[in-house]
Amino acid sequence: MTATDPALTALAQGWCALSLLHGRIETHIERALQAKHDLSVREYSLLDVLSRQHNGEGGHLQMKQVADAVVLSQSATTRLVTRLEDRGLLSRYLCPTDRRGIYTDVTEPGLKLLTEARPTNDKALREALDEAAKNPDLVPLVRVVESLPAPA
Hints:
The protein has six helices and two strands; from the N terminus they run H-H-H-H-E-E-H-H. A two-stranded antiparallel ribbon has the order 1-2. It has helices spanning 6-37, 41-51, 63-70, 74-86, 108-132, 139-147, and strands at residues 90-94, 102-106. Helix 1 crosses helix 5 (108-132), helix 2 (41-51) crosses helix 5 and helix 3 (63-70) packs across helix 4 (74-86). The N and C termini lie far apart (40 Å). The protein has 152 residues and is mainly alpha-helical.
């Protein structure tokens, strides 16, 4: 492939469109969450991921799994956990079977805030997708996002 290869250009244009859609959605959701709940998109995502943990086999996530789920480095995830722990939204405790492991759970105030913020997040996402669908270059990506099945 060369730099002028049409396939490379199409691939690069597709990536630019995807990046643009992601940026617009994230910015719109960020503004809504900050204004109404004093939460960033990353903080909301972390609370959401951690709220889905359970006590069954493999139900608690290790920090690397959490970092992967919120698309941050482990060190950035640890800093984010610390900030939310300082706000009383998360708590950490030692793994009962492996004293080297540390788990993080959402506290009752964290669950309350997440419950209050979820409709704001969902509404902002819908608004951002509707706005993006006005751009012909983004319509195919919006349709793909809209057609994805809900996770089990």
